[in-house]
Amino acid sequence: MTSHGADVPLRAAAPMHAPASHRVVPACLRRTVPEERSPVFVSTFRRVSAPKKALTGAALAAATAGTLFAAAPAQAATTEAGSAQQIAKKMISDSAQYQCFSKIVDHESDWNVKATNASSGAYGLVQALPGNKMASAGSDWKTNPATQIKWGLDYMKDRYGSPCGAWNFWQSNSWY
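Above: the chain sequence. Below: its structure as tokens.
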């Protein structure tokens, strides 16, 4: 078998530290004697490997920087969730009702005030559908956890009697 019409037979690939006579070198990079290392091959290899080293270094730097930058938003989300939970605890005096409300919000949005369901468009802590229904509790419904919690509690009370009534329904249906 020959390489694309060249008179030099193909050899099995060998590691770069193997002697030149055991390496597969494309015919276009070979000189007349395949056993000697071609300056064209060496310079081409150096040109190809140098950008890879630079890219590897750049990727490592970007990954490190990304880790540093990504920590702030994740920390902010955790703080927002904790804040929303504290607000809910203040708004729901009965600890059993709070636990039921909390379980629903854990499942529906993981306490993310801006959670959006990609398929239905449901929005917020309690996944109101459509989200703008929460405007009845306040104009800041898109970003204010207290407004979303107020709307969610009113909805649960009107439809299920209480957050625990809503949680009982949720456990049977995986929605409320």
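Residues 41-173 form one domain.
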